[in-house]
Structure formats: C-alpha cells, structure tokens
Design goal:
- Two copies of one chain form a homodimer.
- Chain A is built from eight helices and nine strands.
- Helix content of chain A is 40%, strand content 18%.
- Chain A has two domains: 8-77, Arc Repressor Mutant, subunit A (Orthogonal Bundle); 84-209, Rossmann fold, CATH 3.40.50.720.
- In chain A, strands 5-6-4-3-7-8-9 form a seven-stranded mixed beta sheet. Chain A has a two-stranded antiparallel ribbon with strand order 1-2.
- In chain A, α5 (93-104) links the parallel β3 (84-89) and β4.
- Chains A and B meet through α1, α5, β7, β9 and α8 of A and α1, α5, β7, β9 and α8 of B.
C-alpha cells in the first residue's frame, strides 16, 4: 500500500497547510513564517520547514514563505490544480450526505483548489435507490460501474457501504482500475499493494479519542 | 493541544489493532504474532512490537500475543471498557447520518468495546430541527447544551455544523467543559491547549489522496 517514500502524515499536513492558507485572506506579496503557519496548524515551526523542504525551497531565510507561491506549490504537489472525478459507492445515509454536500460545495472549500474533486457518479445495488436522484445525480446500479468509471475517467471512490459488504465492494471497484479509496465503513479493508485505502470512519475516530478521556 | 507524550499516530494504530482483533474470531488461548497483526494493519512487525511495547509486555518471544489478553489491554488503554456519552452538534445531513448510524449501531462495531460510545444528545439551532426526533433522540436547542452536558456527563462532541460557524460553535461547546472533539467541517479550528480537536472531514481526505493520483 506504499506508493511513495513521503510519509502519509507529511501529506496530511501539507493538505492542512493548504487549507489554512486558503481559509485566510492574504495581500499580494505577503509572506508567512514557519512559526505563523505552525501556530495555525498546531505543529512546530521546525516541522513546517522540514515538511516543505522535502518538496523544494519555497521560503526565504528570515522572511518566510511567499503565500501566493506557497499555495500554488501546495496545490501542485497535492495535484488539486485540475479537477478529478470521484464516485460515491453506497448511497445510504452517509453516502447521500456526502453526495449532497460535495455536489453542492465541490471539495468543501473555496479558492483555487475548490473544484479539485467532482462527484461524477453514484452507485448502489438497492433497486429502490437505483434511478433516484441524489444531489443532482442519478444513482446507477453497481453493475454499470466499470462502464461509468471508464466513461467518466473516475480516479477516486468513496466507499459508504455497510461493513459486512465493504471488502466485496472494494474488490469489485478495484477491478475497474480505481486505485484511490476513502473507506467510511468501520472495517479494515485489504487491497493490492498499488491501491491506497484511507480509513476515515467515525468509530475509529471515537476509539482514538477514548485514549484521551 | 498535546495532552500526552504518546504520538497520535500510535494511538490511531492501537485503535486499528483493536478493530482488527474484534473483526475476527479467535479461539480461546490463541496467539497472534506481530507479523500477522502487522500484515492485517498494513505496518511492519517491528512497528507493531514498538507500539505495543510502549504500554507493557503483552507478548511472548517466538509465540506472539495472546489475543484475548491483548484485546483486553487495548480496550483498557483506549478506555473503551466503559461507555462514554457523546453528543452530535449540528443535525444537518451529516449529523443526522451519524446520529442514526451511531444510535443504531453504537460505535459501529461488535465485541467488548461495542457499547463504548453512546449518543446521549443532539443539538441544533434551527427551529425546524429542534424538537424533531433523529435516530430515536430528540434534537435539543444549543441553548440547552450546558445543562444537558452536565446532566448526561457528556465527554465527546462530534461537530457537524457548517464551516462558517464551526469555530463559534466549538468555542461555545468548550465552555461547557467538553474537551474532546471530532470536527467534520472543512475548516481548521483553534482550541485551548487542554482541548483536543480531531479533524475528520471528507475534503481533507480527498486533498490528501490527490497527492497519490
């Protein structure tokens, strides 16, 4: 499941840095120091410098990072500079919520990276759901997955299916050539080495928080 | 925001190990090796041993970890051995989806840790939502938050409110004494040092995946 030598936590922080820069207004030519960015992100200035140094020299000693340039670089590194089509598989409550949210508000943010992810298709196997319209999109049957993935050049799938069928559904979607997944079912999924599955379920979040009770 | 010296990633892996052990059937007295557990979790055997060694000597050289004992220890470390009350603030689409999901299927899992998190209260400010029933629970007005948090001894809040009001709502909930949050709004929130906010929004997940496109 490793496709790169850059640790996942670094990529996660880069996505956070980008969000922080996008959330705020900066004037043309403004700089941000590693201390300021670290303060916003909740990490040390050294961590910020180390993370960014992995991808190039974006800053100037004693001045900081030119915000506009840094944003562009982060957008480029995270490849959100052109839109990618995504699909939501499983149009239950959570899948519907994401479908409505992401179609209304692509990728949930403003700024240059705002249109980075576009929900292009929804899938389910429930005959009651197939054919219905959710978030302006028609729900397709999972049997049509392969054709639609090719047609729409879908790169990422959000899996919002029940835990007992999640592995089976993942295996099926993997066969269509999609290699990037976010799984929201409370079950750990196995995938081939060249496939990345991020696990993002609420119960895992809760169990982690338990430690800090 | 640091309340412990154990890195968050370790806690996240412990929660994953526990889930993996809960998902499978093990016979009484069965052992699992660090290689087997690592294989399931997608980490090296050395990582498994290092993570678990931080909390005690749970395994036997050359034999592995006694599954039953290891599960108990993980449940104990993650403090999911007794139920904690949680609240969902913001009963929009995502909040409703979580409310229905978590009330139907407490903490989304089976086994000894299954009742670890109980949704005890739902809050919103929308007069249309307040008084409605979602997942078997009545939606309360945010004005009643402080009283309900004390009454129900609520320890964790899931924030599923729109991004523009997320900081304001967090500040308000922090005042009631809740110190653990999962924020699903696509915005980075600031909190006092003794408050932990995990960010778990779908757009951040997507932006991370972009890197692997």
């Amino acid at each position: 499941m490793r496709t790169t030598k850059t640790p996942d936590v670094v990529i996660r922080r880069l996505a956070t840095y980008l969000r922080l820069l996008e959330e705020r207004e900066y004037y043309l030519g403004q700089y941000i120091s590693s201390s300021e960015l670290g303060e916003l992100a909740g990490v040390t200035p050294a961590q910020v410098r180390k993370d960014l140094d992995m991808f190039g020299e974006f800053g100037k000693q004693g001045v900081g990072y030119p915000v506009r340039h840094l944003k562009r670089q982060l957008i480029h590194i995270l490849k959100v500079d052109k839109p990618s089509n995504i699909t939501i598989v499983g149009v239950g409550e959570l899948g519907s919520a994401f479908a409505r949210y992401l179609t209304r508000n692509p990728s949930g943010r403003r700024g240059e990276g705002a249109d980075a992810f576009r929900v292009a298709a929804l899938f389910d196997v429930d005959p009651i759901k197939v054919g219905q319209c959710v978030g302006g999109l028609r729900v397709d049957h999972l049997d049509d997955l392969e054709a639609r993935v090719k047609e729409m050049d879908i790169k990422i799938a959000l899996l919002t299916v029940p835990a007992p069928v999640a592995q089976e559904v993942l295996d099926r979607v993997v066969k269509t050539g999609i290699k990037l997944f976010v799984n929201f079912a409370p079950v750990r999924l196995k995938a081939p080495d060249d496939v990345r599955v991020n696990h993002a379920d609420v119960s895992l979040e809760l169990h982690q928080l338990g430690y800090y009770l």
